[in-house]
Structure formats: structure tokens, C-alpha cells
Specification:
Elements (H helix, E strand, L loop, with lengths): L12 E5 L3 H11 L3 H6 E4 L6 E8 L5 E9 L4 H6 L1 E6 L6 H8 L8 E5 L5 H4 L8 E7 L2 E6 L2 E6 L3 E7 L5 H10 L3 E4 L3 H20 L13 H17 L6 H14 L6 H7 L10 H10 L5 H15 L4
Parallel strand pairs: 1-2, 1-5, 2-4, 3-9, 5-6, 6-7, 10-11
Antiparallel strand pairs: 3-4, 7-10, 8-9
Helix pairs in contact: 7-8, 7-9, 7-10, 7-12, 8-11, 11-12
Bound molecules: pantoate.
Pantoate binds next to helix 7.
Length: 318
């Protein structure tokens, strides 16, 4: 008897949640690998119907490239997410929990989730909702901004550090795919210390540049030295209470390196305040504060910075 032709199995998808600057940047970097990888990528978007959308990308050396991306609308979530092997969550820290909860009911039970955002906190908030799914975390200092909704410009090369947090390790195939295509990316067996180190940079630079309406380079001035030192010192104390030993002097040195390397840039929080958008303060200095409260440690410098940013947000004219 002739055998029935087998139904083609569609390759497992890599789904990106969040088509902001970082989501689109990662899409372009992965899509560059080869056609087969590009065809596995899609964006989940509750704002649009399913469609193939041209995405423009301006590279660091000024080349402009257009790639076509599949955007999956709400009606088609179930099918795409059931076939998703890796979910890359690239939304702002304060959006992670709600965004993830909106897709979890449809997401394959063995999907791997990777959170990539500024700040810390969502990794603790989402843990109870994951069921059997594994979670990795990452941080990137690649610079990118959206020229318009579907056009991203890369503005700075930077490190991307990724690593496992809960559950099974990411498969070797997916790990290789990420590491060989995301510029200067590395995998770490213990990602938390690196997230705290990046947090120290954001704790020092982000609120001060927003409050004083200045580019990162201004913070090299002596008048900011004390606040930077005290805010990072509080972070070191809180991390120690959380069981992680960090070197204050090394962190301060790193903060000043980043100030110098990104001297002309406006930090993401400066841009958020400038455009009257919600900032990530709760996941940056606010996270230090929350952990400090848990351990009954006082963190007055971080508290002051949080209050100042909240005051700026309260003045938005909408
Ligand atoms: O959030 C940012 O803007 C960036 O993480 C950094 C490193 C502070 C540079 O501006």
C-alpha cells in the first residue's frame, strides 16, 4: 500500500514580544544569519492583524537594509505561540509581567523565555506564572532608537550578556544562534551578578541625566561624584543582603568608563522624560529601594532619585 505523504512540520518559531528599538534590532541581527532563521522569526502584536511588514534598519556604518517580518495579530496567537520554541521578551521592564501574562495561556509548555530589558525586578514578578517553562535573562548595552515605528537605527555597539535563570538550559542550537548573531554577545552560567553590575550603571547614570537634562558625559563633573558614589554604595549593600558580593570600587570605575564611552548619548531615561514617557525608574533605583526595604536597610540616595523622577513624570502634560 502506498504510504500517505507526511504533513510538513513547520519549524519551531522564535517569537519576539515587543517591536521597540531593541526588539527590532535583535530581529535584524538574527534574520541576518540566513533565510531559514529569518523564516522562523515573528513578532507578536496585539495592536495589528497578522501581516508581513517591511522593517528598515540603519546599521552602525549607515547602510540601510529592509527585511520583511511576520507580525502575528491577536487572532493568530494560539497557533504561533503553540509552535514557539523561544520567546524573546523585549518590552520595557514595567510592561514585562502584563505582556507575558497575555501570551502565556497560548505559549508551548516547553518554550524557553528570555527577558531582555533595562533594570531588574520582572524576573522575580513573573516566576510564579511560568509553570514548567524555563527562563533566561539578559542585558544589552547596544544602542538603538526608532526613527519611526518600523525603522530602527543602531546607535552604539555594546555588550549583550545572557544566561540561564530558572529551569533547563537553552538548547545548544538556540544558544549558538543567539551568540553568533547578536553582536558581542556572551553566555554566562551565573547571570545575576552581571545584571546587578549593569544595574549599578543605570542607577548612577539614568536618573541624574534625566533630572539635570544632560548627556551622559556631563556626569563626569565633580558636582555629581558624591551622589553617584552614594547611590552605587547603597546598591552594593543591598546586593550583599541579597547574598551577592560586589566590589564598590570596580563598579564606580565601570560607571565612569560608561560615562566616558557614551559621553555624547542621552540615556534612555533622559529620552523617556524628554518625550514624556513612563520611565523605568521602578526597575532601576526603585528595585534597589524595594530590595532595601525587604532587608530593612535604608537607601536614602536611591529614594531621593526615585522621588525626583516621579516628580518629573507627574509634570507630564497629558
Ligand atoms: O539606559 C541607558 O541609557 C544605557 O543603559 C546606558 C548604559 C546608561 C547608556 O546611556
Amino acid at each position: 500500500m502506498p504510504s500517505r505523504p507526511s504533513t510538513p512540520v513547520s519549524p519551531k518559531q522564535i517569537t519576539i514580544l515587543g517591536a521597540g528599538a531593541i526588539g527590532q534590532l535583535i530581529f535584524h541581527q538574527l534574520a541576518e544569519a540566513n533565510q531559514q532563521t529569518a523564516s522562523r522569526l515573528n513578532f507578536i502584536s496585539k495592536e495589528t492583524d497578522s501581516a508581513v511588514t517591511p522593517l528598515k534598519f540603519t546599521t552602525l556604518d549607515g547602510q540601510q537594509i529592509t527585511r520583511h517580518a511576520k507580525f502575528v495579530g491577536l487572532k493568530d496567537y494560539a497557533h504561533e505561540l503553540a509552535n514557539t520554541e523561544l520567546l524573546l521578551v523585549c518590552v520595557k521592564a514595567y510592561q514585562v509581567k502584563a505582556a507575558l501574562n497575555s501570551v502565556l495561556p497560548y505559549l508551548s509548555a516547553d518554550a524557553h523565555i528570555l527577558l531582555l530589558h533595562n533594570g531588574m525586578g520582572p524576573h522575580l514578578e513573573v516566576q510564579p506564572d511560568l509553570d514548567s517553562r524555563s527562563l533566561s535573562l539578559g542585558t544589552t548595552s547596544q544602542g538603538a532608537f526608532r526613527i519611526d515605528r518600523y525603522h530602527v537605527k543602531q546607535t552604539g555597539a555594546g555588550l549583550t550578556q545572557l544566561g540561564a535563570f530558572i529551569g533547563a538550559e537553552l538548547s545548544e542550537e538556540l544558544k549558538t544562534l543567539l551568540l553568533s548573531n547578536i553582536d558581542r554577545s556572551t553566555w554566562h552560567s551565573d547571570i545575576l551578578p552581571l545584571l546587578w553590575q549593569k544595574l549599578a550603571i543605570n542607577v548612577a547614570i539614568n536618573p541624574l541625566t534625566a533630572i539635570h537634562d544632560c548627556p551622559n558625559g556631563e556626569l563626569a563633573k565633580i558636582e555629581y561624584r558624591d551622589t553617584i558614589h552614594k547611590a552605587v554604595k547603597e546598591l552594593v549593600e543591598v546586593a550583599a543582603a541579597d547574598g551577592l558580593k560586589l566590589e564598590l570600587a570596580l563598579l564606580i570605575e565601570r560607571v565612569y568608563q560608561v560615562i566616558e564611552l557614551t559621553a555624547q548619548n542621552f540615556s534612555s531615561m533622559h529620552q523617556d522624560v524628554y518625550h514624556q514617557r513612563q520611565t523605568e525608574i521602578d526597575a532601576i533605583n526603585g528595585f534597589v529601594l524595594k530590595r532595601a526595604q525587604t532587608h530593612q536597610i535604608s537607601a536614602p540616595f536611591n529614594l531621593r532619585l526615585v522621588e525626583q523622577i516621579k516628580q518629573l513624570e507627574a509634570k507630564y502634560s497629558y
